[in-house]
Hints:
With 140 residues, this protein is an alpha+beta fold. Helix content is 56%, strand content 14%. The strands form 2 sheets. The chain has a 3-stranded antiparallel beta sheet. It has a 3-stranded antiparallel beta sheet with strand order 4-5-6, with no helix packed on it.
Amino acid sequence: MTPLGEFLKKWWLPVAALLLASSPTVGVLWFRKFLEPYVASQDPMVVLNIGALLLWLILLLAAFLFLQRPWLQWDEPTGTWVSCFTQLRYCAKCRATKVITPLKNEVTGWRCMNCQSFFYDPARSHIESPKKRAAKSDRV
Ligand SMILES: [Zn+2]
């Protein structure tokens, strides 16, 4: 991947969140000259209702983002979800049932402590698990 592609992949979410968060503020500041006479001529209850509606829309958007969790990225080789902020891995089977469970790091991969599923790490496939090693030494 090109450096620009890697940069966009890593930073698109924080930049999108920043733009989304700052756009209403910038819009109000930009059109302040036109908005002030209009807002001053309105009934205070109308202004309060518009403010309450805007607050509700912001909270609705925040709830939608929280429920969708766009910060979790699918990791194809391991079959797990990875948080782009903390690099923690999450169970794919549990996420399918809308339960977000962080995975426990083990010798050759990760284990879900909720459903006991194991996810192998191809990067650590050369490492023998302690159980296999113990079984081999018992046979000799
Ligand atoms: Zn699980």
